[in-house]
Amino acid sequence: MKTTINIYILVCSLAFLSTGCKKHNNSPEPDRSVQILGLDPCTNSVANAPKKGYILYLNATKETVITFNLPQALMQKLSASPKLSDGYTFTPASVETVNLNYHFANKDETVIYICVALYATYSKQVVIDGIAD
Question: What is the pLDDT of residues 93-105, one digit of tens each?
Answer without folding.
Answer: 888 888 999 999 9
